[in-house]
Amino acid sequence: xxxxxxxxxxxxxxxxxxxxxxxxxxxxxxxxxxxxxxxxxxxxxxxxxxxxxxxxxxxxxxxxxxxxxxxxxxxxxxxxxxxxxxxxxxxxxxxxxxxx
Length: 100
Description:
The protein is an all-alpha fold. Helix content is about 60%, strand content about 0%. The chain is built from five helices and no strands. Helix 4 (about 65-75) crosses helix 5 (about 80-90). It is elongated. About 5% of the residues are buried.
């Protein structure tokens, strides 16, 4: 866990403690659970309006997603957004390898 994330968690904890001093929740436990969740890896959230955009551009180019990702990453004229999406597609393909 980076120093930056710990500082943010501490600030959230302090602000919430001041706001609700009579809460029934154990704030330290909530913070500890949050840290544990972040260590395990939080879920990736893609905004609904951006879902499938790279796949759509791959289909328009007549390529599979991985072929399109390779061609975008090797294209010097590709926009930074295209390269970001291509890199995400390449990394996401590795996430479930070997899992059933």
